[in-house]
Amino acid sequence: MDELDSPGVTPSKYPLLDRVRSPRDLRNLSIEQLRQVADELRGETLDTVSTTGGHLGASLGVVELTVALHAVFDTPDDRLIWDVGHQTYPHKILTERRERIRTLRQPGGLSGFTRRSESAYDPFGAAHSSTSISAGLGMAVAHDILESQGRATVRDRHVIAVIGDGAISAGMAYEAMNNAGSSKARLIVVLNDNEMSIAPPVGAMSAYLSRLMSSQKFLSLRDLAGKVARRLPSGIERTAKRADEYARGLLTGGTLFEELGFYYIGPIDGHNLDHLMPVLRNLRDADEAGPVLLHVITQKGRGYAPAEASGDKYHAVAKFNVVTGEQAKTPPGPPTFTAVFGRELTACAGDDESIVAITAAMPSGTGLDAFAKAYPDRFFDVGIAEQHAVTFAAGMATEGLRPFVAIYSTFLQRAYDQVVHDVVLQNLPVRFAIDRAGLVGADGATHAGAFDLNYLGCLPGMTIMAPSDEIELLHMTATAAAFDAGPIALRYPRGNGLGLQALPARGSLLEIGRGRIVREAGRQQGREQGGIALLSLGSRLGETLKAADELAARGLPPTVVDARFAKPIDTALIEQLARNHAVLITIEEGAAGGFGSIVMHHLALTGLLDHVKVRPLTLPDRFIDHDTPAAQIIHAGLSASHIVQTALQALGVPDVGRDALAGDLPLSRIAPTS
User: Fold this and answer.
1) Could you say which of 114, 239, 474, 534 is the most buried, measured as most Cβ atoms within 10 Å of its Cβ?
2) What is the pLDDT, as a whole number, of residue 311?
3) Catalytic residue among 414, 519, 540, 554
4) Catalytic annotation on 184?
5) Is 613 a catalytic residue?
């Protein structure tokens, strides 16, 4: 008698899944048993995400495909690469990480994406899209080279890349397929089509044709026909090849992939293990070399009614009630920076018909959904194509339109050459609305906007703004809309604004390259020897003001400045700070080499660096893992206490507590200069 059958023992909710400790445990199960594993795996995924939040819809859509791939292929020796990686929660559960799955996206827990350091079953880290085919081809070619040298660790390694219909639209995916098509690499690309945008109806005939075309007999017959055709005169050989591809293209819709050099199979039902298993086994056992594309149709949110009925298929969710599907509501608070940007841009577009908005598959994530509803003819979602988005905007700018490219900082990295060559070199007035600038909490290092100040700040003629709060973002959006002198960027963080005061109806224009004094120190005397200046860029102003309060309570009231502009910097104001203070601390939520470096470079050229102690506070020279936003700021050394300690150390003042120094010096006074 099994333990679970014993009296008094509560039956397991997922009895068969409990027996799957690793993928090898799937390989002796019948298809009927694999179906049960898939059902239980879907339930476990639901239970997990309901407590952690995360990417649910995509994970539910690949449950059967995940089970089939691990049941057929010898992972991790066979390499299974998931594009983007947000759909890999079922994969993680099956690959020896189930005991930790409820730490998903939690501090110190599992990543929400694939990560090489996390598991041998994650051969390639991901989070940005469209990389899987390139990486998979590299692995397949590397294996062939190592095998020819007698250094391969396994024989006949299979490499499988799973990529979605959205990700495969990106240029990088086609570059990889074009390269792979001219090779003999053993690469299997699984096109996970969950939008049915390029597929004919799926049914028994399609499944039959897929099994037929992936079978040894068909492949051998086709190979024989190819050999015969190669012995024919060249014109007849080309005609025979085209006839074969055209006939199969009519049946399956795979002509495009065939033209790229892939052998196309599909489409098949990605939720039907009776269809998936024989096709995958045929591909595993095939002797023929060369890349193959298997087209499977799946449904995002599959098996969970609230997700299936939702417009976004529960793509990314907060914690939720599994029974009702109701997601936990965040406490009411100030609007998000994203929403404030979208509101102001939509208002600006009402006054200016030349304003257009462009995004790369992120209309709601960048706050452009309201703009799209109000002005659909001036809104362009170009798909996962950041390079195209930037040059598309550049072309619009040449004709007098005022384009805004709304994009996450981390994704703008993918279009850097276009920013440099197509926009900046031609001094075109393209506006870059850079969302998720800085640290991003649970999404971790892959989505952090750490480098935009660096890679944009070095470009001649680029203007860069960073709002300290949501009101400043209104002003900067309006300023960008009116700015025609060249390219301009505004970077703003993820999350809610500060809610310090009500938002004005509209933003006002700012003078380019001018900061503002938020708090001016009083009369300087005593051991301060000139005092402290805190020069904050962007979202760190709140922590900077907390630090200023702490320093003032210690009798060291600093001057606090909101830089507003990372480029051009306010040279007059910065020189004034350097002349009138003993210590100048720059604070930014970006990597070293950004705003602080620009400030120090200017001070060095003017000779003022010799007269002031400059201490730049930036993100550290390492990646910061997923955590709560507050914890990430502490890990980064950008909290108020870090600012205070930096100031005290620079002044040479011992940290003896606020009471020992309080009252020696006048408290700071507020002197806003807008």
Assistant:
1) 534
2) 75
3) 414
4) no
5) no
